[in-house]
């Protein structure tokens, strides 16, 4: 059985994409695998405190785009995909449409500000102006993750999806 959820929108010269997955892909890659738990099948649209959560960036002037809505890919692990050009830099946060306290996730300390592929940083989900910074190492798709398995110590990381 093949499960697919694909969405895309062109915003300010960048392509923002949703997630695509196949249930037959390797379970060792949770960001691509569909799973089922008592709370339902993954991935599913992310909600924190009953509100939709988005990857919000300066590339689209911090607007809320349904294609940038986070998907819960495992219990309390959320992902959004973004296509970037080589060396393209962006500022970003994870937040709902209202920038609500507890759902407005930026960096925790200055050392957590710069996010790189393969590097996990700490987040503050009551951020005001603490935007993460990311620079694409090459043109292509990037997966931005918010890990809230420990609600008192959320983490952020970026991966390159396997092609």
Keywords:
163 residues, mainly beta, Immunoglobulin-like, 9-stranded antiparallel β-sheet, 4-stranded mixed β-sheet
Describe what this molecule looks like in 3D:
The chain is mainly β. It has one domain (8-159): Immunoglobulin-like. Helices cover 0% and strands 42% of the residues. The protein contains no helices and 17 strands. The chain has strands at 8-11, 14-17, 35-37, 40-42, 44-45, 47-48, 51-52, 54-57, 71-74, 77-84, 89-95, 106-107, 114-115, 121-124, 132-135, 140-147, 155-159. The strands form four sheets. Strands 1, 2, 5, 9, 10, 12, 14, 16 and 17 form a nine-stranded antiparallel sheet that branches. The chain is globular, with a radius of gyration of 15 Å. The model is unreliable at 1-38 (pLDDT under 50).
The CATH topology turns out to be Immunoglobulin-like
Radius of gyration: 15 Å
**CATH class wording:** Mainly Beta
Write down how many β-strands occur, each being a DSSP E stretch of 2 or more residues. 17
What's the number of helices? 0
Overall CATH architecture: Sandwich
What kind of assembly state do the chains in view correspond to? single chain
Report the major sheet: 9 strands, antiparallel
Shape: globular
User: What would the average pLDDT be, to the nearest integer?
Assistant: 82
Category by helix and strand content: mainly beta
Share of residues in helices: under 10%
Cα(first) to Cα(last) distance is 20 Å
Structurally, the number of domains stands at 1
Beta-strand residue percentage = 35-45%
Order of helices and strands: EEEEEEEEEEEEEEEEE
Low-pLDDT segments: 1-38
């Amino acid at each position: 059985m093949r499960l697919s959820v694909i969405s895309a929108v062109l915003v300010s010269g960048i392509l923002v994409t949703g997630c695509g997955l196949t249930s037959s892909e390797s379970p060792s890659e949770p960001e691509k695998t569909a799973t089922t738990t008592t709370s339902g099948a993954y991935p599913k649209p992310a909600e924190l405190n009953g509100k939709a959560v988005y990857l919000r960036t300066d590339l689209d002037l911090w607007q809320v785009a349904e294609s940038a809505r986070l998907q819960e890919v495992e219990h309390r692990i959320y992902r959004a995909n973004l296509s970037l050009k080589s060396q393209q830099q962006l500022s970003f946060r994870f937040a709902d449409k209202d920038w609500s306290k507890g759902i407005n996730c930026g960096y925790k300390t200055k050392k957590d500000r710069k996010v790189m592929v393969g590097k996990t940083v700490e987040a503050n989900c009551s951020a005001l102006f603490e935007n993460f910074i990311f620079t694409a190492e090459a043109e292509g798709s990037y997966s931005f993750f918010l890990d809230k398995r420990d609600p008192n110590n959320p983490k952020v990381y970026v991966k390159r999806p396997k092609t």
